[in-house]
Amino acid sequence: xxxxDSPAPAAGVxxxxxxxxxxxxxxxxxxxxxxxxxxxxxxxxxxxxLRNWRVDGVDxxxxxxxxxxxxxxxxxxxxxxxxxxxxxxxxxxxxVENFLPGTLEGWDIGPDRLLEANPRLVIxxxxxxxxxxxxxxRPGFGTLVEAMSGWxxxxxxxxxxxxxxxxxxxDMVSGLYGAASALAALRAVxxxxxxxxxxxxxxxxxxxxxxxxEAAKVRLTGATTMRSGNQSSHTAPxxxxxxxxxxxxxxxxxxxxxxxxxxxxxxRPELKTSEKFVTNDARVANRDELDAIIGEFVSRxxxxxxxxxxxxxxxxxxxxxxxxQFMQDPYAIERQAVVEPAGDGSGSIPMHNVIPRMxxxxxxxxxxxxxxxxxxxxxAECPSAGQAAER
Length: 391
Prior knowledge:
Number of strands: 11
Shape: elongated
């Protein structure tokens, strides 16, 4: 990442992150990347559960999503711990938590008490099912909402069971919503000079927002979209095609002009006027036949030959990569999509760069903090907090 003398866009914003695992950490890592002072408030002796997600003994997920943050340990079950949190709130702009709804209220540090300490505070509350729903007291991990929202039902092949994503999709999408909404609320507070805000963010609604067009389809057609593998239910051609050397390419003709360009590229210009393929609706209805035609052409060439051929024809094409292959691709290297910031003494690990880039704004990465690493430092910045924190 380029280093400049320009101030980071979120410099001066202080965030208290009381969350555990992915959603809250994802939201605050976005803010931390842009210069916000994110203070991870962790359980003494245990810390964030994300620290326990290890690969060959390395806390990879913690190193990535806790970069640029500071750590302090507080025990909310004690009166001193709660008083310290309220004192820290007086210097904060945003607070993020993902406890089971009602937990903070049970400790007498719910939103009313937090806003009493700091009337301009933006409080982001992340939970599986929302603060007010019939399921509010039900634990809710991303896996459950990916299943219930309709996401898993849509994914996979038609002759196979529904498929869950191989990553914390619900948490990550919710984290992005959380970061954006927290900044929007903070902007409103700054512009109006008014009171703070409480944001009620469930995990399930962000996932559903990705597929909400399906609700319209159900209403209009009375039918539920079935799994279609790598095909699309609304545009064709769109699929992965096997090459002669066993590799795969991705090909998409989402616009009429692109579909016609593909027909020319595979030497079948007559498909442009065929009633089976002349319109997008027709192509979707006959997508299996269309995929067979394209697949036959692709199967006679290697991956490299297919990429070169379709790129020459100005067709939207790309290779199916593993992560290892993507990291070595000249594009990823030139774009600096993958960075390896200095670690905590145990070495560096590759991770994603700041997204998106801002012109004239740069910076550097700080390693994810050790448990309670910044306790004394943070308390020194907030003398009224006392000595309730525990290492």
